Every structure is written in C-alpha cells, then in structure tokens.
Amino acid sequence: MSQVDLILASQSPRRRELLEQIGVRFAVDVADVPEVHQVDESPSDYVQRLALAKAKKISGRRSDGIAVLGADTIGVCNGLILEKPTDLDDAKRMLKLMAGNCHQVISAVAVVCSGRQAVGVSETSVRFKETIDDYLIEKYWQTGEPQDKSGSYAIQGLGAVFVESIQGSYSNVVGLPIEVVTPILAQFDVPIWSA
C-alpha cells in the first residue's frame, strides 16, 4: 500500500471489507477501549462514546495528521443491550429474545484528526424469524461465527438464516454504516474509490 489516507481503530474484518469496498486506503491500529455500558446511558450515547474513545485513543498517539476512524455496534431488543456473547448460554438468551421480534442495530462512527472530530449514528431494524430452536443455535455456535458478534449473529454470514427482514442500512448491521461513513470522511478530505 503506497499511501494511507485513514487509520481504522478496529480489528473487525467486516469493517475492513466495507472500507475496501468503497476504495479507502487505510491501515489498522487497534484501540483497546473498555466496553462498559454506564447507568442511564442511552444505547445511542453508548456507541457514540465508544466510537469516539477508540478514535481519540489512536489519534492521540499519532503525529502524522492522518484521520482515525473508530466505530462501535450494538443490538438492542426490548430495551436490552445485546453485546458480544460470553458463552453459548448467553448467545442462546440473545437469539431467543430476538426470535419473532424486531431488534435495532445501532452503530456509531467517529473520525478524529488534528483536534477535529465528527460522529455519526445509524440505526437499522432487523426482524428475526419466529422460531429459532436450541439445536440450530448450538450448531451455529459451533461454527465460531457468533462468538465475537454483537447480538450473537452475523447477517453477512451464516446468521442470515435467522433474519426475516431489515429496515434501514444493511452495512450498518454488518458493522460500518457506509451512508454515515462517506460524508464524515469527506469532511476530513479522506478520498473514496482510491485503493
């Protein structure tokens, strides 16, 4: 890669693929930020705080003037925040909660560069199929796919079998809402279609 226009403060392969899809020249520098929901913090405020903290952490240790992008994604169902599962039982709990229901996937994107910052949020409604049995959940868990995914599923992977419909941004559910990212990148003169 001859030139880098952006630093991605995330180890997510999905976020890398989405940036590659729109032709952004970037490098990865992972930010280790504790993901702990605070009391009385709305889901939207929570993901915005985390995305900004990730971008600021990496930007704060760089002096090259390259913009840093931080992102965070969570699911919310019946007022409960759905993060990455701790084990199979936690994944079962989340997937059963979402069965036959709509849940929201909320992502925040933050870009920080040379003291400037911008944050955007996307929300998508996802409806799951009515019935998800234990056998299917256990087979899905054994694939390894749900183990590092908010809400215990990947819409772009095997977890698509649980989804009945979505309203809103597909790329948001994958983990990086392109419709939010591109105008923010433009504010920082980060080109797309360059890679």
Topology:
Layout: E1 6-8, H1 13-21, E2 26-28, H2 43-60, E3 67-77, E4 80-82, H3 88-98, E5 102-113, E6 116-128, H4 134-142, E7 163-167, H5 170-174, H6 178-187
Parallel strand pairs: 1-2, 1-3
Antiparallel strand pairs: 3-4, 3-5, 5-6, 6-7
Helix pairs in contact: 3-4
At a glance:
With 195 residues, the protein is α/β, with parallel strands linked by helices.
The 3D shape can be described as elongated
Provide the structure class: alpha/beta
The profile of the biggest β sheet is: 7 strands, mixed
Number of strands: 7
Instruction: Give the terminus-to-terminus CA distance.
Output: 8 Å
Poorly predicted runs of 5 or more residues:
none
The helix content is 25-40%
Order of helices and strands: EHEHEEHEEHEHH
Number of helices: 6
Using only C-alpha atoms, the radius of gyration works out to: 17 Å
Quick check: average pLDDT? 94
Percent of residues in β-strands = 25-35%
